[in-house]
TrEMBL record:
It catalyses: 5-phospho-alpha-D-ribose 1-diphosphate + nicotinate + ATP + H2O = nicotinate beta-D-ribonucleotide + ADP + phosphate + diphosphate. Residues 6-129 form the Nicotinate phosphoribosyltransferase N-terminal domain. InterPro entries: Aldolase_TIM, N/Namide_PRibTrfase, NAPRTase_C, NAPRTase_N, Nic_PRibTrfase-Fam, Nic_PRibTrfase_pncB, Nicotinate_pribotase-like_C. This is Nicotinate phosphoribosyltransferase. The lineage of its organism: Bacteria, Bacillati, Bacillota, Bacilli, Lactobacillales. Catalyzes the first step in the biosynthesis of NAD from nicotinic acid, the ATP-dependent synthesis of beta-nicotinate D-ribonucleotide from nicotinate and 5-phospho-D-ribose 1-phosphate. Pfam families: NAPRTase, NAPRTase_C, NAPRTase_N. One of its GO terms (molecular function) is glycosyltransferase activity. The keyword Cell inner membrane does not apply. Its EC number is 6.3.4.21.
């Protein structure tokens, strides 16, 4: 695992150095959460926790790092000495990867020496924002595809090799079945997928020869790209000729891929040609600038497609390329006393929730049907019935009472210093967990367009604490 300790904005080093000189003994509590969901969706699929854990366990500064920081002439030697012998000494709790998470809910909470916790902001946000963004986009795309497999094809369009590799992992968390990225396949145990590009066909004297040579090399992986010249007049007829030879030799042809043109009409024509030739099991894969809306349109038009290969619009979340997760101080600890903190601005929308908290998913009693989430202070016991308030400070009719429910906590302990407190599941186990959690929330909440709001509340005790801090600072008066 690479050491990512220097993936830190300068102000974090400057503040940590300042803490070292002033309030060195204080502990800090920071939450990571988001206020807005990409693509006007209802929720985000959490992803990136495994890399967060491994990065924190490996967080250290080598001699070249210290030399560089010293060269900036900003930091005291006692701070640089602290970094030389840096030892991670924080507690981390988080919502597991693959879980649908809603605005204002703490995805991750970190508690430890204020100097340390300040240094992790950029690193943790860059990991969780990116991977949760891609997992969320993949969820939307695979939702549109229904039961048809979606292959992640985006490495060439990703913003760098690490984004391509961890983005592929996030895409699988969101529902993809395979990746074209061989490093991601190796690293995370993901099936690798892909056959040929147009260059293979162009490298031979004609299309039929190109297909025949491919089938000679890969007789059991004969998925042929049929749109280099003409899908219906050339590509599919030549593919059928090769498929017949393969079948006679005892091999089962895989199918064809269409990467351009009017995919609905081409797929219909290709399906008829394949069926008439005796290859009803040959799959038709579509690729080329697909996203959830294009896939939904293709299937709505009745395109006979079996698989999708999705690249740039998935790996970059092109239609909504930012998840604006934030890292906010929720409390400090002085002399073993927790002191809640709040961030305010000119807008109520940016109010933060103070104190150490837990997120609960509420279910109808005795069922797995979730109907709301509640954010509570970590040490409070939920009552029945419970008075709650909408977490969104801009909401109208915020007060609500919930009579009966089963409450399941979402955040769990992850790290205590460098000691792992939970399992780090394999990526397809995370995907399975995600599908199970998605099955528990209302279908209307999962719609791609105009999804229903899934209510997120805060407890009355948390609301009272927030109001107390606002009144103390005479905010919004």
């Amino acid at each position: 695992m690479d050491n990512l300790s220097m993936v830190t904005d300068l102000y974090e080093f400057s503040m940590a150095n300042g803490y070292r000189q002033t309030i060195d003994e204080e502990q800090g509590v920071f939450d990571i959460f988001f206020r807005k969901v990409p693509d006007q969706g209802s929720f985000v699929i959490s992803a990136g926790l495994e890399q967060v854990v491994k990065s924190l366990q490996n967080f250290h500064f080598d001699e070249s790092d210290i030399t560089y920081l010293r060269s900036l002439h900003l930091f005291k030697e006692n701070f640089l000495d602290y970094l030389k012998t840096f030892k991670f000494d924080c507690q981390v709790s988080a919502i597991p990867e693959g879980t649908p998470v809603f605005p204002r809910e703490p995805m991750l909470t970190i508690k430890g020496p204020l100097l340390q916790t300040q240094l992790f902001e950029t690193l943790l946000l860059s990991i969780l924002n990116h991977q949760s963004l891609i997992a969320t986009k993949a969820r939307r795309i695979t939702y549109a595809a229904g039961k048809r497999p979606v292959m992640e094809f985006g490495a060439r369009r990703a913003q760098g090799p690490e984004s391509a590799t961890y983005g592929a992992r996030a895409a699988v968390i969101g529902g993809c079945t395979s990746t074209s990225n061989v490093l991601a396949a190796k690293k995370f145990g993901i099936p690798s997928a892909g056959t040929m590009a147009h260059a293979w066909i162009e490298a031979f004297p004609d299309e039929l020869t190109a297909f025949e040579k491919w089938a000679e090399v890969y007789p059991d992986n004969a998925s042929l790209l049929v749109d280099t010249y003409d899908v219906l007049k050339s590509g599919v007829p030549n593919a059928i000729k090769v498929f017949r030879k393969l079948k006679q030799a005892g091999h089962q042809p895989v199918g064809i891929r269409i990467d351009s043109g009017d995919i609905t009409q081409l797929a219909r024509g290709a399906r008829k040609l394949l069926d008439d030739a005796g290859f009803p099991d040959a799959k038709i894969t579509a690729s080329n600038a697909l996203d959830e809306h294009v896939i939904q349109s293709l299937l709505g038009e009745g395109a006979p497609l079996d698989n999708f290969g999705v690249g740039e619009k998935l790996i970059t979340s092109a239609s909504s390329p930012v998840l604006s997760g934030v890292y906010k101080l929720a409390a400090i600890e002085q002399n073993n006393q927790l002191i809640p903190k709040i961030k305010v601005s000119a807008s109520r929308e940016k109010l933060t929730l103070p104190g150490l908290k837990q997120v609960y998913r509420l279910y109808y009693p005795g069922t797995k049907h979730a109907f709301a989430d509640v954010i509570a202070l970590q040490d409070e016991k939920l009552d029945k019935p419970i008075d709650v308030i909408k977490a969104n400070p801009l909401a109208t009719k915020r007060d609500h009472m919930i009579d009966d429910y089963d409450a399941v906590p979402l955040q769990e302990k992850v790290l205590d210093a460098t000691n792992l407190k939970t399992d780090l599941p394999a990526v397809f186990d995370i995907q399975k967990h995600s599908k199970e959690m998605l099955a528990e929330i209302p279908a209307a909440t999962q719609r791609l367009v105009n999804p229903d709001e899934f209510p997120v509340y805060i407890t009355q005790k948390l609301a009272n604490l927030q109001d107390e801090l606002l009144q103390r600072d005479k905010v919004f008066k």
